[in-house]
Amino acid sequence: MPMDLAWLPALPSTIKINARSMADASAEELVAASRFALSYEQLRVLGRAFPKKNQSKELKPVRLGIISSFTTDLILDALKGSGLRHGLAINIHNTPFGSAIQEALSFEASLGTMEPDFVLLSLSAKEIGLRESPEDPEATISGAKKLLDQIVTSVKKSGTTQLLIETIVPPSDSLYGNGDLLNNSSLKYQINDINNFLRAEASKSAFALLDTAALAETIGLKAWHDPVMFHHAKLAFSLKAIPLYCERLCHAISSMLGRSKKVLVLDLDNTLWGGAIGDDGIDGIALGNGSGLGEAFLSVQRTALNLKKTGVLLAACSKNDEAVALDAIDNHPEMILSQRDFTTYQINWAEKSENLVKIAETLNLGLESFVFLDDNPGERARVRSLLPQVSVPEIGDDPALYAETLLAGGYFDRQSLSTEDLGRGQLYEREKVRKVTQSSFSSIDDYLNDLQMRLEYGPISPRNLVRVSQLINKTNQFNLTTVRRTQAEVLAISKSGNHTTFTARLSDKFGDMGLIAVAICEEKNSTWHLTNLLMSCRVLNRGVEAAFMNVIENQARKAGITQIVGQYFPTKRNEMVENLYENLGFECLSKSSVRSDWVTKLEASQPRKTFVDIKSSI
Amino acid sequence: MKGNTMPGTLTRLQDVIWEVLEEEKEIDSETTAADFENWDSLGNIRIFMALETEFGITFSTAEVASLPNVGAMIDSIENKNN
């Protein structure tokens, strides 16, 4: 279900949450119950039970004012219940239904007298004047912006209250179809324009943003809206979305209070790669392009690295032999994360909870700012029970969903206005570079030179066997012979005395493309026969094939080879390499409709000009 | 599951109503909103939403507005589950 809190553990059947069972619960018990994936009614029970109890010292009191065009009565208790999950004791000042604009414009005299820490402004499209086909759409939009400006000014006059404005969720139905966002007379266009205006203002720190429109888009507008409930009670969205909405609102409040999570602690085996490094070895773990499973683990690493770039600290916590695990991190060719991406690590056989405490001490940060990602349900449950302040997302058992579930948890929520996140600056810098790269080169040579391509070559080995076999059997276009081979055959060739094999990985300033080319040379009478030569299409038109041939020729010379011969066997798919050998400077020996034969004499051959730096991986 | 032979709809409905309204009064097919202190318009919406979750069904705008008593609610639920 898209609106489930999938990253939270399910409520155990031993815990019943209803008004009666929670009537005498302590604050601590209510907080403990809040950490499960609760339904709307269950959250509501917690929210109602809490104020009757003594306030817990563990909870941060928050006064929240709400100004809304919608009926919020049904949200309030559930929001209090959700707050417990985030260590917040939320006290809510609601304003009467139907008076949102007046309340906002007279903020100081009305809600402002309650001195709320935060005020949530949740206005409907209708309330700020947006509608289908107004007489003057531009005036309608600019009028709405002016109204919002006035409201911001009104609330900010109060000085201490932080303003949180909600984006407007567009309707799910489409009046213009494909033209919805093309015509400023359409309501969707106007809402989109206002939302972008709110986002731009929020990015300039005018206020904080609760981007409910983005949340609803992720869920799906059809599921988000509930027309029956809207018509009955002017609810902004389906009651089923309330737990998720409250969660997102708590993320925003936490982030404004500087309480977003700061550290992502990662398990290694079966979390960052498939398999156990101690059992399977560096050649046996699943990681990297070429297999779905290997790519899924790459996605986990990529997400961790992306989080690091937004300022999240990474740490590793794994039950492993430290040297073995570090060797994999340092030397597995497909690792995205490198040792220096981890601010610290604890790799040993001790309890993970003890290691987490050590990591917290090293970083001088509280455990409540920690998120712990581990594939093992037992480890997760143990850490949860020993260190309840650590957030431990449920991530299921499919690595393809680990990253998605982690991010859905919203642990690292932050407003774009934060300047403390150094990584973000670098991110913008790189975006800038990319744009320049796309726009400013007068010649293809300049462009290729600027790409800073690096080709790393090595033989076929057990470590790349899966990817190599996949390329040999799936590449159709840039494939000179289209000779297919089983994995076992490839392995046998890689060990054979009269074959020399080549693989190439390519990276450039924008990232690593992984293993992209394979060549197999069979030696006969001081001649290498290229029985397989193929390349992934994702690196076409960059001179990579010329660089790869330079590598092969260079190695051939060292091996005392005098000439290299190759064939082209035409298929329906490989026309693009019909002239490859000719373009690489080979001589044609013979040519027919079913094959052509080519040779290059190494005595006469010169290295081809490329823009690729060559490096041996051996 | 056939409507008329489905035992327990009344019990399940009663559990939902008790949980949502926090009022534990015996219900039968003649019970109406007026019999509960907390069964106001918002309470009504919460009951219908909780029933949607409990029985895996959806109610129409008209049903949320006008099902006259518990008996009519049970009929509607059992028809939807047919």
What does this structure look like?
The complex is a heterodimer of chains A (618) and B (82). Chain A has 618 residues and is of the alpha/beta class. Chain A is 39% helix and 18% strand. Chain A has helices at residues 19-22, 27-34, 40-49, 73-85, 100-105, 137-156, 187-203, 212-219, 221-224, 227-233, 242-256, 277-280, 292-309, 322-331, 352-363, 377-386, 399-408, 422-439, 444-450, 465-474, 487-495, 544-558, 580-583; strands spanning 60-68, 88-94, 118-122, 162-166, 208-210, 263-266, 313-319, 342-348, 370-373, 453-458, 499-508, 511-524, 527-535, 563-568, 587-591, 596-601, 612-616. Chain A has an eight-stranded mixed beta sheet with strand order 15-16-14-13-12-11-10-17, with helices on both faces. In chain A, helix 6 (137-156) links the parallel strand 3 (118-122) and strand 4. In chain A, helix 3 (40-49) crosses helix 4 (73-85), helix 4 (73-85) packs across helix 11 (242-256) and helix 6 (137-156) packs parallel to helix 7. Chain A is elongated. The two termini of chain A are 49 Å apart. Residues 417-440 of chain A have low confidence and may be disordered. Helix content of chain B is 55%, strand content 0%. Chain B has 82 residues and is mostly helical. Chain B is globular and about 30 Å long. The model of chain B has no long low-confidence stretch (mean pLDDT 85). Chain B starts with 8 loop residues before the first helix and ends with a helix. Chain B has helices spanning 9-21, 41-55, 61-66, 70-80. The interface between A and B is medium-sized, with 17 and 16 residues.
- Largest beta sheet of chain A: what is the strand line-up? 15-16-14-13-12-11-10-17
Q: Write down the Rg of chain B.
A: 12 Å
| Biggest beta sheet summary of chain B | none
* Beta-strand percent range of chain B: under 5%
Decide which structural class fits the backbone of chain A.
alpha/beta
- Name the quaternary structure: heterodimer
- State which percent range the strand residues of chain A make up: 15-25%
Please outline the major beta sheet of chain A. Answer: 8 strands, mixed
Secondary structure tally, helices of chain A: 23
Uncertain runs of chain B? none
Question: What is the tally of beta strands of chain B?
Answer: 0
The largest inter-chain interface, given as chain pair and residues per side, is:
A-B, 17 and 16 residues
* Fraction of residues in H or I helices of chain A: 25-40%
Termini of chain B, distance in Å? 7 Å
Mean pLDDT of chain B: 85
**Integer-rounded radius of gyration of chain A:** 30 Å
Shape annotation of chain A = elongated
Number of strands of chain A: 17
Q: Uncertain segments of chain A of ≥5 residues (pLDDT<50)?
A: 417-440
What structural class should be given to the helix and strand makeup of chain B?
mainly alpha
